[in-house]
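call fold(seq) -> tokens
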Amino acid sequence: MKYIVVLGDGMADYPVPELGGKTPLQVANKPNIDLLARKGETGLVKTVPDGMKPGSDVANLAVMGYDPLKCYTGRSPLEALSMGVRLKDDDIAVRCNLVTLSDEEDYEDKTMVDYSGGEISTKEAAELMACIQDAFGDELHEFIAGVSYRHCMVRHHSVTGTIYTPPHDISDKPIKGYLPGGKYGAEVLDMMKRSYDILKDHPVNVKRIKEGKHPANSIWLWGEGTRPALESFKARWGLNGAVISAVDLVKGIGMGAGMKVIEVAGATANYNTDFSGKAKAAVEALAEGADYVYIHMEAPDECGHQGDVEHKIYSIEQIDEKVVKYIVAEMERRDMDYSMLIMPDHPTPLKLKTHVSDPVPYVLYRRGDEGNGAAYDEENAKLSGKYYASGEELAKHFLRGE
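ret:
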């Protein structure tokens, strides 16, 4: 048996007024997912344990069948793994976004205009992060460039205890009430303030402004954590696993769990990603010996953060047409027994532009299922009456039939 997870990050939502009170999942044209939902099983699952923040780190760990309450040590360390950073016991990894802040004179009076720095390109970001490393890199601090706006700071010989706020939680809000505090709060805030002076007139940003793009004019630090220690996926579930994602976080989880991380040329973390490329890579991985493939697509989440209704619907439709349809057809053509789990990790409601911890709808289809259920959306999943209290419980049902 082959196991396939199609993870539409942030795909679930709340009713949207401009969609007639329906959600993007209810409006999107997704005949392939709906067919599997009608034939298979739908329900709700709680992926974010009580007391934990609804981040993609926590939620994706849960979907993969881990208990975040036992194994979670922070978001940035998982991303650092994907960047090739090997943390020591007394290292702290911190996520470093390149963001767009408004231009008020005092830093504290600025507003979070864009947590992604206008979806800055990786090449442009590398230039800016080189300047940040030159300015702040020392025996304690190291800045490592990542992909697009997502980067990392490692603070050596340190401990946790700094208070941070994810920038995507405060889109369009004044930053004054969300600045760093706690252990190293004053030091971190000083770096963020100085970064604005360094980056605002950088040639990369001058060019971006001329092109009508948001400048990436400040760093924003958040998501601290220590070196992760995940049980291997093979030891936990007895399966050879693979991960396909454009996001360092999910790739880092895969690496930490000893899974094969598959790179797909043209894969981005937005709606312009190569959906077909991810689907083809998944099928080939299964044909070459993988027992389990986790296909992560960030697009719906990014659109939720941006309040982009049109492209959130588009992303769902692309997942249906380019990923689910292709994989089902290929698995049938190759006569391979399979089970497929389709779900988000958490909701990212368009009206909130950030994550929430509500239970999410899932579809579980096993080859040969011939049920007579309903289409896939939040409401039908709720009406099904099926509910799992954790991602680990759903994983046991999915992978072991429990």
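The longest helix spans residues 309-333.
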